[in-house]
Design brief:
Elements (H helix, E strand, L loop, with lengths): L2 H26 L16 H24 L5 H27 L4 H25 L6 H20 L10 H9 L1
């Protein structure tokens, strides 16, 4: 197995485990204000995007130095993977729940797993092709913007569906 495949597989495992555990950290911490910036504080789709974003960011920050020598396009590829994996969570969730009329926990879990897998698959492919390298600056800005939004919107939550818990957003739409 080559290094890139190994790093990709290790990343998938790391993000699956840490993302799953992240779902409970805020509650386990006694609802720590600071930890709320990085871990879901409620069941909204927006907060669940943190389950992918921060574990992937942490893994890629740790691994980027190891990978840069062998894979010069790894950083831009990592950033695309983070953004894609994170953004797929609401896309998949709202698509399936819109079709089925409600959400199911098993499909929510599958949404997380699929988002992580596609984020890492994209990272792997782009690391080999370097197609994202010319967008490195914009990708860095986008990831920074997402991080700022996660922190900002944790406690200054807009009254928009993605920030509401699924049952609350459905009631809001009906009213």
């Amino acid at each position: 197995m080559n290094k890139l495949k190994l790093y990709t597989l290790m990343g998938v495992v790391f993000v699956m485990i840490t993302g799953t555990l992240s779902h409970f950290v805020y509650e386990w911490s006694g609802k720590s204000f600071i930890l709320g910036f990085f871990f879901p504080v409620n069941e909204s789709t927006w907060e669940h995007m943190k389950l992918c974003f921060f574990p992937m960011l942490l893994y890629f920050l740790f691994m980027s130095r190891k990978m840069k020598a062998d894979y010069p396009c790894a950083v831009s590829s990592m950033l695309v993977g983070i953004l894609l994996g994170t953004c797929l969570i609401p896309v998949i969730f709202y698509t399936y729940s819109g079709i089925l009329g409600k959400n199911y926990m098993a499909l929510d879990i599958a949404t997380f797993v699929l988002s992580v897998l596609l984020g890492f698959f994209t990272f792997y492919r782009l690391s080999l092709s370097c197609k994202a390298e010319e967008y490195l600056f914009l990708l860095k800005l986008a990831v920074i913007a997402f991080a700022i939004c996660f922190v900002l919107f944790t406690y200054l939550t807009p009254k928009v569906g993605i920030f509401m818990e699924p049952s609350a957003s459905a009631l809001h739409i009906l009213n």
